């Protein structure tokens, strides 16, 4: 995650390009796209609580006053929401979110979010429709397997709806000292590096070496266990990583680039939605 401004969003049009995009339910929980400015602001408020209040991101005056995590990309994105119907039927029900930026929206805007940290030109040149994932978070009491599975069902439905071939984005490890994260970064570089033809590379002025230890010095299982749940989730879906990490001091994170080809998304998610759509 990189530094950002806090603009007003009069051009907000989220959800209006996916008529009939269904809510998927699991008991009292559901996953769907945001359709109102109030729902977007609920997602931004949730992001603020998680990123700033829990994870130690540094807020500027405008962010602190608004208590919203927002940037210029929010207006061109679709926002996937996990909602708890036991909490209501409006913005108050939002307990999880994921930001989705389709290739067409990024091209019209002029860039993807990730391009402030990575050279993604190999990925952009690769055939197929692209989707950038980011700003994922859930309320603290909803960080469980059911909610993560519901989010991934929603992403699979979105992928199916728009014919997405490749998903990518910046994923974060908490903290800004790469030597503290040396085992995790080295493990990712050695065992999950993306093929060169699609491999993003950290921008030269932001590049941080990921291979920080000798291979014999790390325990792969222990390094994998120490990774954040979201990154482990990407790896379970066949995710691969770019070259170089990026320090984001505003968000108190060390970022890596992640790529997932959608034909590797687990059958459990994709086929479930395919059956429902038919």
Mean pLDDT: 88
The CATH architecture of the domain at 99-277 is 3-Layer(aba) Sandwich
Uncertain runs with pLDDT below 50, 5 residues or more? 1-19
Tell me the β content. 15-25%
Instruction: Count every beta strand, where a strand is a DSSP E run of 2 or more residues.
Output: 11
Structural category: alpha+beta
Largest sheet: 9 strands, mixed
Portion in helices: 25-40%
In CATH terms, what is the fold-level topology of the domain at 99-277? Aminopeptidase
Oligomerization state of this entry?
single chain
**N-to-C CA distance:** 37 Å
- List the secondary-structure elements in sequence, H or E: EEHHEEHEHEHEHEHHEEEH
CATH hierarchy, class of the domain at 99-277: Alpha Beta
What best-fitting shape do the alpha-carbon axes yield? globular
Rounded to the nearest angstrom, the radius of gyration is: 18 Å
Number of helices: 9
Q: Quick summary of this structure?
A:
The protein has 278 residues and is an alpha+beta fold. The protein is built from nine helices and eleven strands.
Describe this structure in words.
- Helix content is 32%, strand content 22%.
- The protein has helices spanning 37-54, 61-66, 103-109, 121-125, 145-162, 182-191, 220-226, 229-236, 267-277; strands at residues 24-26, 29-33, 78-84, 94-102, 118-119, 130-138, 166-174, 201-202, 240-241, 246-248, 253-261.
- The strands form 2 sheets. Strands 1, 2, 3, 4, 6, 7, 9, 10 and 11 form a 9-stranded mixed beta sheet that branches. Strands 5-8 form a two-stranded antiparallel sheet.
- Strand 10 and strand 11 (253-261) form a beta hairpin.
- Helix 5 packs across helix 9 (267-277) and helix 6 crosses helix 7 (220-226).
- The longest helix is centred in the N-terminal third of the chain and has 18 residues, at 37-54.
- The chain is globular.
- Mean pLDDT is 88; it is low at 1-19.
